[in-house]
Structures are given as structure tokens and as C-alpha cells.
Write a structure and sequence with these properties.
Blueprint (H helix, E strand, L loop, with lengths): L8 E7 L3 E6 L8 E2 L13 E2 L9 H9 L8 E4 L11 H9 L5 E6 L7 H7 L4 E5 L5 H7 L8 H14 L3 E7 L8 H11 L3 E5 L12 H8 L7 E3 L14 H6 L4
Parallel strand pairs: 2-5, 3-4, 5-6, 6-7, 7-8, 8-9, 9-10
Antiparallel strand pairs: 1-2
């Protein structure tokens, strides 16, 4: 199959959380735009820190690329990409437009920083699966690991996650990225996870190339013990599907997928 030079869609990629995942980047800027500048991000430093939502890509452009796809088996169409996807003001419209074209389940991976906003919540309610990040247990930890813009606080993030969880009817997962800076705080993070009560806890460590070293399987298994009373999975537990990307290697590289 000839690989397509797609601008906004990438993959499918083998995801340990989502099986065969066809990615959509609703930001698609040359530079990384986010509310965080996480120390472990495989895309490198954030070029522009912002929490202002705006339209980066028109939904018609996403629809055109989705419509041009050859037959491909996927488990999820996943909004992620080069930055925080909820910064896209038309995220909800994109999700609804895709539903008119395909029957695949739709997932959104978010860093949780904007979950306090009613418009963001409204957009995400249309998704089948929302994966929300929570790497920190305090403001200090947030500043060390996620390095957010000044206007975003730990309490706002935690309250937003809890509010969204209470309203959302789809599958909800809490993703925790464990690195050296927070590995000793697994107990505190597990207590927060129990308060949130997600359908699933995803225990992650950065296996793709970045500036943070991944924790060993032994260490991750030890961390997982704190979540033994919850439905938890780790990046070392899951097998990745064999998938054949339809997008070019360059497209995957721009999204940090290889």
C-alpha cells in the first residue's frame, strides 16, 4: 500500500493503551503548542505556552483527509499530536464530523489542564474514551515534572479532572507518567487516583527517546502494587499490535511516534 503524505492524520500506530490507533493532530503547527512543557516529552521543549483556545485546523480539512483514507482496520481514532488537543476550539465539531463518516471509536488524550472549562468538557463528552494525565501530587511536583504556564495550578487540574469524571459517561482513564522525579510518590498518586475513581489507571514511563530515562519493569511493577485495588495496566504489561502505517515516516516523526 502506498503511504500517503497526510498533513493532519498519522498512523495507524501500535498503542499499548488503544491497540491500533489512527492519530489526528488538531493543532498541526510547526512548533509545539501546549499548556505544559513536560520534562519527558518526546517532542522536545514547548515553543509556545498558552491556554487560549482557537481554531488551528478547520474541521473540513480533517474531514477531507478522513474521507481519502483507504480501507484500514483500527481500534480508535485518537486526538493527540503536537501539543494539547483541547486547545483546538473546534475539537467537538471535529469529533462530530468524523462520526458522520466512520463508525470507529474516538479517543482523546489530554494533559487535563483545561478540564475545568465548560466548553472543553462539552467537547470531550462526545468522545468514547478520554485519557487524562495526572503526573503530579502537588503544586511543587507539577512545576518540576510538567512545568505548566503560570496560570495553571495543581488544584485547578485536580478539581477539573474530578468534575469531568462526574459528568462523563464514556470510558475514562487516568494516565500517570512515572520518572525519577515522582517515582517515590506512587502512594500519594494512588490515593488521588482512588479519589477520582477512573475506569482504568495507565502506569506509564517514557520508552520513546526523550531527556528522561524510563524506569525499569521491576520498578514499575513495584509502583503498580500501590494501584492493586484498581483496574491498572502498565506500559510493560501490554502487547502492541502489528500495524502498517498509511502515513509517511516523516509524518510519524513530526508527532514523535518513531
Amino acid at each position: 500500500m502506498r503511504k500517503k503524505d497526510l498533513k493532519y492524520i498519522y498512523g495507524p500506530v501500535p498503542s499499548w493503551r488503544l491497540g491500533s490507533s489512527l492519530g489526528i493532530d488538531p493543532i498541526s503547527e510547526k512548533d509545539k503548542i501546549c499548556t505544559f512543557d513536560c520534562v519527558y516529552c518526546q517532542l522536545g521543549r514547548t515553543s509556545k505556552l498558552t491556554k487560549k483556545r482557537r481554531i488551528y485546523v478547520q474541521q473540513d480539512e480533517i474531514v477531507d483527509e478522513i474521507s481519502s483514507l483507504p480501507p484500514v482496520e483500527i481500534d480508535y481514532i485518537t486526538f493527540s499530536g503536537r501539543g494539547e488537543p483541547t486547545l483546538a476550539e473546534n475539537l467537538g465539531k471535529m469529533i462530530k464530523a468524523i462520526r458522520t463518516l466512520r463508525k470507529d471509536k474516538i479517543a482523546v488524550i489530554t494533559n487535563s489542564s483545561l478540564l475545568y472549562r465548560e466548553d472543553v468538557i462539552e467537547d470531550l463528552l462526545s468522545a468514547n474514551f478520554v485519557i487524562a494525565k495526572l503526573d503530579a501530587y502537588s503544586q511543587k511536583c507539577l512545576e518540576i515534572i510538567n512545568r505548566p504556564m503560570k496560570q495553571i495550578t495543581f488544584n485547578t487540574i485536580l478539581d477539573g479532572i474530578k468534575q469531568f469524571r462526574s459528568l462523563y459517561k464514556g470510558k475514562f482513564a487516568l494516565q500517570i507518567m512515572f520518572i525519577e522525579e515522582n517515582m517515590k510518590n506512587a502512594k500519594e498518586l494512588s490515593q488521588l487516583a482512588k479519589e477520582i475513581n477512573p475506569d482504568e489507571v495507565q502506569i506509564n514511563t517514557p520508552l520513546r527517546p526523550c531527556k528522561s530515562k524510563p524506569l525499569s519493569k521491576k520498578k514499575i511493577d513495584e509502583i503498580k502494587e500501590y494501584f492493586r485495588d484498581m483496574n491498572s495496566i502498565s506500559v510493560y504489561d501490554s502487547e502492541r499490535k502489528q500495524v502498517e502505517p498509511i502515513s509517511t515516516e516523516d509524518t510519524l516523526k513530526r508527532r514523535g511516534k518513531i
